[in-house]
Amino acid sequence: MDLIIKTNPVELGIAAGTTSAELIRQAISEKGRANIILATGASQFETLNQLISEDVDWSKVTMFHLDEYLGLAETSPASFRKYLKERFLNHVPSLKEVHLVNGETDPETECTRLGDLIEQNPIDVALVGIGENGHLAFNDPPADFETEEPYLVVNLDEECRLQQLGEGWFKTIEDVPVQAISMSVKQILKAKHIICSVPDKRKAKAVKNSVEQPVNNKYPSSILQQHADCRLFLDTDSAGLLSETK
Which end of the chain is more exposed for a tag (fewer CB within 10 A), N or C? Predict the structure, then answer.
């Protein structure tokens, strides 16, 4: 795991988005196409802002995304499909393929559909974040490190749901769904390159656990230590508790 620490979220996003674009262009150059994973949430704002400004032949890119709430309408301000359309897809030329997670249909059927698709499209670049509770996608602690299923239905713990409320996506905790469809940990780790963007002081403890704790499903993102090419982009706030920066 390589750590890249920038002064603020904007500089973090510029660095993460630029690096992501370079890796996507590299995949297109090598094999004529690229398969990517995009994350959502506040941590991805600046990274996606930079990515949409990059010169990429998006017609050769297939996109998957990490997760979506169960039973939440796409019109909801908290919908991840809405987020990706408004913050990414509407700003770039049409992609080769787009595979969004539909949380409004039968979840088991949706997991199977997406799983079959992603198994046919090995991922070149995965853009992810880390939750306040250390979750990777919506794999809350203790995360399932063993399942081979590419997508699965997960229960969201209280800390995860409070984060969504705190970021302003929902008006009350009762409005936050209790389940979601999430990409599995093993599927995320299959990506050739992982770009993990984690700004903000509220993520500092999760970052410290992810970097300095032994790999343990109590700290789901600690599994990124085992990936061959994971680049963790931090700002001075999110890196504030790391021992090596003191």
Answer: C
